[in-house]
Amino acid sequence: MTFHPDEATIEEFRKRIIAWYEESGDKRLPWRKVKDGWAVLVASLFLRKTTVAQVAKMYERFLKRFPSPQSLLSAEEGEVAEIIRPLGIHQRTRQLRELAKVLVEHFEGKVPCSREELKKLPGIGDYIAAEVLLRVCNQPEPLLDRNMIRVIERVFGVKSAKKRPHTDPELWSFARELVPKDPEEAEKFNFGVLDFARKVCKARNPRCNECFVADLCQHFQGIEMRGRIVDQART
Ligand code: SF4
C-alpha cells in the first residue's frame, strides 16, 4: 500500500472527529481520565480481548488496591486474581506480575517513554506501546486497532496488502499522519475515531446515512456511485 493523503481532507476529517468526540464521545470511561503510566498500561492490557463493560466492573477497584507495580508485586497472587476475576481470563494475573516485576527491576517502577523499551516489556506490542506514548508521553501516535483500521480503510480508500494489517508499517505511518500534533487534540482524535468506529462506522451495517463524514468517505462515495448506476440502469 502506498498512499498520499490529501491534506485538506485529513484536516477536515480530524476537525469533525474531534468536534463529534467532544459532543458524543465516551469521555466518562474511567481509564480515559488517567494519565499515570501504570494506570494506562493496565487498562490497555485489561481491554485486550475483553469488553468495556467487563473492565468497567473492576478497573477502579484494581487501581485503588494496586496503584503501582510495587504494590501489585507485594500482594498475594490470590488477591490479584480475585479482583481481576470479572475479566474471565486467568492468565492475566501471571502476566501482570511479570510486567510489574520487569518495571520494578529495570525501570524503578516507572513506565518508560521509549517505543523500543516499551516493546521489550512482557505482553506489550505496537498498540499498547502507542497508547502509552500517546497518553503518558504526549507523542502523537495512532491507536491502530481493527476498529481504527476499518475507519481508515473506508474513509481514505486505502487497503493494507498484509494479512494482518495491524502489523503493516505503511498503515501505521499513514495513520500517524492523521493524528494532530497537539497532545490533547491527538488524544481526543484517537478516542473519537475509536468511538466513531463503535457507534457509527460499525463493522456490520455502518450508519452511512447519518454519518457526518460521508461526504469525505471513499467507501460511501463507492456506495453512492453504485446506487446511481443501478438507478440509471432502471430508467
Ligand atoms: S459513510 Fe459509512 S463507511 Fe463511511 S465513514 Fe461514515 S459510516 Fe463509515
What's the layout of helices and strands?
Layout: H1 7-24, H2 30-33, H3 37-47, H4 52-65, H5 69-73, H6 77-84, H7 91-107, H8 115-120, H9 126-135, H10 146-156, H11 169-178, H12 183-199, H13 218-234
This protein binds iron/sulfur cluster.
Q: From the 3D coordinates, which CATH architecture of the largest domain would you assign?
A: Orthogonal Bundle
Compressed to H and E, one letter per element, the order equals HHHHHHHHHHHHH
* Biggest beta-sheet profile: none
Low-confidence stretches: none
Global structural class: mainly alpha
| Relative helix content | 55-70%
Features:
single chain, 235 residues, mainly alpha, Endonuclease Iii, domain 2, Endonuclease III, domain 1, 2 domains, 0% strand, elongated, binds iron/sulfur cluster
Structure description:
With 235 residues, the chain is mainly alpha-helical. It has two domains: 1-26 and 139-235, Helix-hairpin-Helix base-excision DNA repair enzymes (C-terminal) (Endonuclease Iii, domain 2), CATH 1.10.1670; 36-135, Hypothetical protein, domain 2 (Endonuclease III, domain 1), CATH 1.10.340. Helix content is 63%, strand content 0%. The protein contains 13 helices and no strands. The chain has helices spanning 7-24, 30-33, 37-47, 52-65, 69-73, 77-84, 91-107, 115-120, 126-135, 146-156, 169-178, 183-199, 218-234. Helix 6 packs across helix 7 (91-107). The chain starts with 6 loop residues before the first helix and ends with a helix. Bound molecules: iron/sulfur cluster. Iron/sulfur cluster binds at residues 154-155, 200-201, 206-208, 211, 213-214, 217, 219-220.
